[in-house]
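Possible race condition, two jobs.
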Amino acid sequence: MPEPFSFKLITTDGAARRGEVTTPHGRIQTPAFMPVGTQATVKGLYPEAIKATGAEILLGNTYHLMLRPTAERVAALGGLHTFMNWPHPILTDSGGFQVMSLATLRKMSEQGVTFKSHLDGSMHELSPERSIEIQALLGTDITMQLDECLKLPAPRDEIERAMQLSLRWGERSKRAFEARARDGYALFGIVQGGDDIALRQQSAKALTDIGFHGYAIGGLAVGEPQDVMLKVVEETTPHLPADAPRYLMGVGTPHDMLEAVARGVDMFDCVMPTRNGRHGTAFTRFGSINLANARHADDPRPLDEQSAHPDARTYSRAYLHHLTKANEILGQVLLSTINIAYYQQLMAGMRDAIAAGRFADFHAATMAGWAQGDILPPSS
């Protein structure tokens, strides 16, 4: 019988936290990064290759999967884990962000949002109850409440309106989740409030009063400067329960994640490692490397001879440059894999540092490594 959802806070180092999430499909060591498999796939990568990077959980998306192939079809085919051949934990975003960013002819109401599909123009309604139903049909381990996500900057009264609506939708999401009686699975609430600290803290307190298995900080990385995002995180996490996981949605760069862990965040997701990889950028302990640059054309060095992942140690920068310039699919696959592996290595490094009580040293060393930049090869 699968284990029920739980979170164990193992140790802390300052505000940084080392923990373990247990789900029906396996355990997740935190801090954790979730590769994004929006449409039941991390673009271009086999599930086995993703697992080999150290990833323990993937993210799927309600909006995309409800439109194609439909949640009902995925359920009939055995659920999302079976459908995409990923027998490990899966978290699904509720679809709210994609409705706001991709759909056209949106109409918001207290009931939910009605929108026109970006695929074929068909009309759909997404309510808190329907979002929970879709995620239950998919069979994902961690379900997210439906919320309204605003782009920043926005007027305070509009931010407060969306935050209050998200709270009411959170209550409805919880009732719908409990009515489906999926023992062992989890529902996360989402803190909203834009860049207003008072509204963020109000949202965090109200969600805690409702009671969820975990808490996400949403509505960031939507146009605000990094210092604003980190200030919101720093002022929000102390108002969330210490015995539940904290998830910063849609973030981000390696630097974003390093700083967010220092402020008490446990979980992350972002398309950046795969999206940037498909466009020729590698993430390494020396910072990001643009393989399209001509200076890599004759460089026989690997990206990082000390990387734990073989692709980063095996393929030369010259070859990756060639694949990038030739727009070869293999280059996109290799760089996507290398980037996810680096993100996982960064998480593992933070976990070890927190456990050893040396997170500040790890933070300083990591920042120093990135400051070196893409080190030039020695002159011949």
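Job #2 (started ~2 s after job #1):
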Amino acid sequence: MLRKRVITVLTFNDGVLYRTKLFRPDYRYTLNFVDAWSVDEIVVLDVTRPGEGGRENFERVIADFARRCFVPLSAGGGIRTLDDVRRLMALGADKVVLNTGALERPPLIAEVARAYGAQCVVLAMDVRRHEDGRYEVYGGFGQRPSGRAPEDWAREAVGEGAGEILVTAIERDGWLQGYDLELCRRLSQAVPVPVLVLGGAGTWAHMAEAFEAGAAAACTQNIYHFTETSIRSAKAFLAKRGLPVRN
């Protein structure tokens, strides 16, 4: 049986670690976290808006993480070309996270998959649930509607070569009220690749619910910032619930 993964997502604005709420930097952190965690993977995202900072600061963050952490490292934010991917991989990233750049030009997914393998390509999608219950993928930091249904975009992305799907429920970002389990189920049933869910985890039970809804990985951002003890306690809770996790 494949183990369920617990993944930490860290968001950086102009090279500074922040948590986010509704896709805006909400609270700045000044502490330093890396290699003592029991987390399975780390995802590091650049959420710097155009004109608000330079790419160099984020690249320094990736290089620093790559030197010091001992779990798989994914990097994303602002990737538009294969050259962008090459720079991040050269700095030490194990995977790259594609979002708006892939929405704007889906063949980018295939270009990266051909160069580095599908296992290195994480397709991130930011999804908004409308009042009528309809889900829609958004680009541009969750501000620009794409007209795409998440299941359709996930299938297209996997067809292009995406090896994993990372989905964030926009309206749940930072609220700690639980994942969108319906969205998780839909995507897990739509594609044969692992689905990673982000947005809303506030308790260990929320993580268990995501796994039970079909997620391969529960991604957390604001629930703990971030101690080895809390991650160990999360995994202990999940194991007692009968879920296969790495201890």
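The domain at 5-240 is CATH 3.20.20.70 (TIM Barrel).
Logs attached separately.
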